[in-house]
Amino acid sequence: MIKEARNKLNNVFGYEDFRPLQEEVITQVLDKEDALVIMPTGGGKSLCYQIPALLFDGLTIVVSPLISLMKDQVEQLQQYDIPAIFLNSTLSPDEYQRNVDRVRNGEIKMLYLAPETLMMDKTRKLLATQNVDLFTIDEAHCISEWGHDFRPDYRELTEIRKDFPNATCLALTATATPRVREDIEDILKLDNSETFLASFDRKNLFLKVADKEDPLEQTLDFLYTRKKQSGIIYCFSRKQVEELYVELKKEGHSVKPYHAGLSKKLRNRNQEMFIRDDIQIIVATIAFGMGIDKPNVRFVMHYDLPKNIESYYQQIGRAGRDGLRADCLVLYSRSDKQKIQYFINQKEGTEKKVAEKHLKDMLKFMETDECRRVPLMGYFGETYKKDNCGMCDNCLSIDAEVEDLTVHAQKFLSCAVRTGEQYDAYYIADILRGSTKEQVLENGHDELPTYNIGNEWAKEQWILLARMLVNQEYLDRNESHGPLSLTDQARAVLDGKENVFGALDRSDTVVGDQAMER
Ligand code: ADP
Ligand code: ZN
Predict the structure, then answer these.
(1) Which GO terms describe its cellular component (predicted)?
(2) Could you tell me which residues are beta bridge partners of residue 136?
């Protein structure tokens, strides 16, 4: 049988070889054993039922909640000359009837349905006349309240499954925590089934979380070294999308917005422009990205904290589809966390409990000192075994040497004090490096004892130090680019009572020339 499956793979679909787990799943299905398949998006779930569908005598039913994806798949299959159709509310009565007739006449190999269509009496009566070999449930996580996308309709599938005693049941999803997995198995009664779990590790994605301090400046810094790269920036709200879009536009970036508040026409146009590389960046809410298969997305940035790991994973999953390195950056702040908490507090019962658990898991990822892949893949029930992935901020900072930076910190802090704690990091770095800029000379700051005592470091290094001193709470900054003032802890450093340790973090924002110019 598997030989014939391979034959279909080569000759119908035109692929050379199976992807990981496809062959195993197909073998299981052809043996008429139930299976639960958990494979990340883009992993190749569809072939797991499309190939058996071609080999079975009877009908294959595919339940899917996504009408747009249903349509895409059916059109694709029809191009391969596979008799596949769908039944859902988007069809005209005539088309609907024609499709029903084709099923009744046994002309069809694959029938795609939304769950609510499947539950209708007339559909059940129609299917009772057919020999159904395979009952496929796509997006099977929708069955569980513990998933991120619960659909009460999916619960009815338990009953409907009984209509097809000869059919093998194949449930597929891109995201299922161990808890959701148990729910799927219980609810669909997949007692003797096998679970196929593909790895969720996307090795070419560099994962980073940064404290959100001055998000606009951080975004501009991030984009500065990615001038020609294609990327997505996700924001929490439509309003935030619009604001950031305007700012980036002002800075000369090639960018368009995307959110549900825009007309469908405009949304489609912006999406098309992004896919065709007519624009470089799309600033979007979570409404953007479903079904998008653009290979060269080089970065996905989260301007705001994502709601849960599933959506985060799905969103970063749109980067680096070509297998080349791509960068994923989240800006994380406590106030974002409170914003999400606020929405959670309006919920009740299980829904609230579930949302709380999702937030907690997300925060675990944000706040870990370990490799980011440990909590990320742990969430999907996978144990990450490598000590150092080499592709996340935490693993890199283990490599970066933590140095004693006390002397440099003292120079910087002392210069900030001597200029009255009224200046930003760029100006202080200028003084330390003996700049002859007009402003420095006019202010008489070339007379200071701290003038020109720091030219052993490039300006970039001083800026990174300043950022680190803010992070470690030696310096306070009330507004973006605002003056830096010393904390009590900083005075202890100046008095020689405390040493400053750290690694100058260059992995995210290599502060480029843009910063130098300020
Ligand atoms: P999923 O449903 O898991 O997100 P799809 O089934 O849509 O993934 O497959 C993702 C892409 O990978 C599709 O373009 C599909 O044609 C392609 N694909 C799937 N299996 C193979 C394979 N064995 N060889 C090459 N390409 C494949
Ligand atoms: Zn790591």
Answers:
(1) bacterial nucleoid; cytoplasm; replisome
(2) 62, 170
In the structure, which protein residues have their CB atom closer than 6 angstroms to any atom of ligand 1? Answer: 15, 18-19, 22, 39, 41-47
| Neighbour tally for 191: CB within 10 Å | 8
Per-residue pLDDT band at 399 (split at 50, 70, 90): low
Pocket test for ligand 1, best of 6, 11, 47, 137 (most atoms within 8 A of CB): 47
Q: How far is 23 from 153, CA to CA, in rounded Å?
A: 31
Mean pLDDT value across the chain: 90
Phi, psi of 316 (to 5 degrees): -70, -25
SS3 content of the chain, % helix, strand, coil (to 5): 45, 15, 40
What's residue 515's pLDDT?
38
Point out the ligand 1 atom lying closest to the alpha carbon of residue 18. 23
Q: Which helix (H) or strand (E) holds 485?
A: strand 484-486
- Distance, in Å, from the CA atom of 422 to the CA atom of 428, rounded to the nearest integer, reads 10
Q: Which two tokens stand for residue 343?
A: 């929405």
50 touches 80 (CB < 8 A)? no
Residue 400 CA to ligand 2 centre (angstroms): 13
Could you give the dihedral angle defined by the CA atoms of residues 459, 465, 471 and 472, in that order, rounded to the nearest 10 degrees?
A: -160
SS3 state of residue 445: helix
Q: What ligand 1 atom has the least distance to the C-alpha of 22?
A: 23
Task: Provide the greatest CA pair distance for the chain.
Answer: 95
* Residue 402: per-residue pLDDT: 66
Q: Report ipTM for this prediction.
A: 0.97
